[in-house]
């Protein structure tokens, strides 16, 4: 059983839990002990570091293909490209077919491996309407290695993609100006916590959406248009954060990095730690929350996520580890959270399900007759504090920490919380 009262943080921690059946899920935790008393210096502004990998590095580094370089061609001293054996015949056949019927056959390049089919088509044909992509796939007009596919199927390097005659729309004006590009690029650079030639980690502020939507015009994905490289390649989102969640957001600079980093998130190799301020004090200081989560409607008809039962329509399993770091007058608590899965609104749903919703959450805060302590802003107190992810080239872990956003820093100062103290969540299991 995990004893949460260790001062030095070095004692062995047993996360094997006493499981208590809860409606729709399992709540499990350790003993109800005092939290640790370790303290440190003033809160750091930004911590960014690379650590030694726990896993053996990949045996071979991936070489990024330069713009214009083709896999199957080689250049002699004279400067003319000589096609590999059989390539000339294949190119002639493909060209003849395309001219006669409008049909094209594309080969998936290594740096396009693991891309979703719809994103592959969007990248190859920026002027192709998304609705047209859905239609030609649904009707079976587009084939991969001769077989029918779905828009979200992922491609493998070397696969053959048969493209029917396309209806390309004219490029729509983006409405962006050079001044806007300059301003957006400067703003995004001011948010960078870590950067190299393959990826960057941004400190996303609260209130900035990651992607566009109804009524959302300013968002990270749109601003990334200002950071296209010389080859016209736009940095890509690898994951998402809620609009009102601040902290670490990973951006890939190349298609290869996007595919590799995306695989790290899907395989749960990436480790994420969040900080939150919640109402009340969890009776069990450290534990594991395991439920099913599905989309539902609240009494006002608004869509939201909620705890569901196994087998319910659209229900997905969600697991979160949590640890109480400190509390203030039994009124509010600083908790550290480590999601094992990555469901929509998972942490917000799980803390509310535990009976301790996140302070400032307009959608899931469910404590009646609860008053916000004086001096604390009514904003979502949730921070994507730290992320550890294997580098897409060599597997070395990139370890990045984000500072508290202004409204949470104000709350931490008001309550006397020390952001540099030991975080017990680092000892929790990975699954």
Structural overview:
It is a single chain. The chain is α+β, with helices and mostly antiparallel strands and 431 residues long. The chain has 3 domains: 18-38 and 268-427, Pseudouridine synthase; 86-163, Structural Genomics Hypothetical 15.5 Kd Protein In mrcA-pckA Intergenic Region, Chain A, CATH 3.10.290.10; 178-261, Pseudouridine synthase, CATH 3.30.2350.10. 18% of the residues lie in helices and 25% in strands. Strands 1, 2, 3, 9, 10, 11, 12, 13, 14, 15, 16, 17, 18 and 19 form a 14-stranded mixed beta sheet that branches. Residues 27-88 are annotated as: Disordered. This is Ribosomal large subunit pseudouridine synthase D. Belongs to the pseudouridine synthase RluA family.
Strand content: 25-35%
Structure classification: alpha+beta
Based on CA inertia axes, which overall geometry fits?
globular
Main beta-sheet strand count, sense and barrel state: 14 strands, mixed
CATH class of the largest domain: Alpha Beta
Give the tally of structural domains: 3
Termini distance?
A: 17 Å
By CATH, the architecture of the largest domain is named: 2-Layer Sandwich
Could you name the ranges where pLDDT drops below 50 across 5 or more consecutive residues? Answer: 1-24, 30-83, 95-100
Rg from Cα: 25 Å
Q: Give the topology string: H per helix, E per strand.
A: EEEEEHEHHEEHEEHEEHEEEEEHEEH
Q: Would you give the CATH topology of the largest domain?
A: Pseudouridine synthase
> What's the helix count?
8
Number of strands: 19
User: Helix share of residues?
Assistant: 10-25%
Fourth CATH level, the homologous superfamily of the largest domain: Pseudouridine synthase
Can you give the mean pLDDT? 79
